[in-house]
Amino acid sequence: MLVLSSPSGAGKSTIARNLLETDPAFRLSVSVTTRKRRSSEIDGQHYHFRSVPDFEVMRDRDELLEWAEVHGNFYGTPRAPAEKAIGDGQDMLFDIDWQGAQQMKEKVGVDMVSIFILPPSIDELRERLKRRAEDSDEVIETRLRNARAEIAHWREYDYIVVNDDLNDAFHEVQAIVTAERLRRDRRPGLFDFVSEMLNESAVV
Ligand SMILES: Nc1nc2c(ncn2[C@@H]2O[C@H](COP(=O)(O)OP(=O)(O)O)[C@@H](O)[C@H]2O)c(=O)[nH]1
Ligand SMILES: Nc1ncnc2c1ncn2[C@@H]1O[C@H](COP(=O)(O)OP(=O)(O)O)[C@@H](O)[C@H]1O
Predict the structure, then answer these.
(1) Which of the residues 40, 70, 92, 139 could staple to 85 if both were Cys, CB 3.0 to 4.6 A apart?
(2) Where along the chain do its domains lie?
(3) Distance (Å, rounded) from C-alpha 179 to C-alpha 187?
(4) Known binding site for ATP: residues?
């Protein structure tokens, strides 16, 4: 379970997309949101776009593993695909905010690795949001106002990656994934491996 969070515009969706394209082991958890769909987004692929009443029905039926209000809209992680992935041992990527990361940590514990993506500066964050040209000036201002409060949660994450040069940041994320997979996959077998080695040396 890999959680990516960042203030809006820092580049987490870009890094998530690169990871999904280059690493076939990852599946994206497609969130449900009440936010308006952007022109570049496809329903069911980037998000499941739902009305507020439909979201509330899902939430009240406990169909969401976690949910939060972010920038005035509701967002939530559908429970069924995430739990299936956890059960199957599938690597899953969650693009969720700090509130979601906290809730997920409580639910999945050590099986979760979290990365907080920082922009090089708040000015650059503003420029990226403008250049992305997907949100109105008002929406961009709300996101920038919220950025400081989101960044304040950086210490709660396992890793921090500063997304200045995209290539460098992506390689750092790949390195984290590689190291964490090695730890997960190698650790369980190491006890027997080392015991056997020591037993053999005792015989010699
Ligand atoms: N808690 C939670 N946060 C989510 C979920 N899906 C998206 N988010 C977060 O909601 C925030 C806004 O996302 P979005 O509207 O796509 O804007 P963007 O971050 O500017 O691309 C981001 O911080 C996302 O990580 C979710 O299922 N749960
Ligand atoms: N390292 C970078 N340098 C310059 N622009 C970037 C970089 N990373 C991402 N971007 C651009 O910044 C904008 C915001 O990135 P995005 O991935 O949508 O952010 P988020 O998902 O965190 O809101 C996009 O237009 C993206 O192409």
Answers:
(1) 92
(2) 2-182
(3) 12
(4) 6-13
Cα separation of 29 and 78, whole Å? 8
- Whole-model pTM: value is 0.94
For residues 138 and 46, give the distance between their C-alpha atoms in angstroms, rounded to a whole number. Answer: 22
Type of residue numbered 156: E
Q: Is the CB of 5 under 6 A from ligand 2?
A: no
CA-95 nearest atom, ligand 1: 25
ipTM: 0.97
Look at domain 2-182 and name its CATH class: alpha beta
Q: Which ligand is nearest to the CA of 47?
A: 1
Query: Whose alpha carbon is nearest atom 5 of ligand 2?
Result: 128
- Alpha carbons within 13 angstroms on the beta-carbon side of residue 80 total 5
Q: Note the ligand closest to the C-alpha atom of 162.
A: 2
70-118 pLDDT, tens digit each: 999 999 999 999 989 888 888 999 999 999 999 999 988 778 999 999 9
When pLDDT is averaged across residues 139-162 and rounded to a whole number, the result is: 95
Q: Whose CA is nearest to atom 14 of ligand 1?
A: 8
